[in-house]
Amino acid sequence: MVEDAHQWMQAWRSAGEALARVRREELRALDGKKALALLTGPADYHQEPRKPRKSSGLIEQQRWFMKARRDA
Asked: Could you read off the pLDDT of 17-35 as tens digits, one per residue?
């Protein structure tokens, strides 16, 4: 029983080391620009969500504050 547990732990230790090696190799081979493009999708600044807004919301916020001030 103890022997089985020892073998099981050794197998997981070896697997962990191998997986760490694979991860390091994959990270070294990674093309950063390609990975970023895959994560973010095409950078089309004419469509949502990257399309510039007509207002940042600050103007609308100031309108609400002015209205609240008048109503107070």
From this structure: 999 999 999 999 999 888 8
pLDDT at 50: 64
pLDDT of residue 32: 87
Between the alpha carbon of residue 56 and those of residues 9, 43, 49, 61, the distances in Å are: 56, 20, 14, 9
Residue among 43, 19, 39, 42 nearest 30 (CA): 39
Query: Which amino acid, one-letter code, is at 1?
Result: M
DSSP state of 6: H
Contact call for residues 62 and 55 (beta carbons, < 8 A)? no
Closest CA to 42 of 32, 54, 50, 52: 50
Average pLDDT, the chain: 86
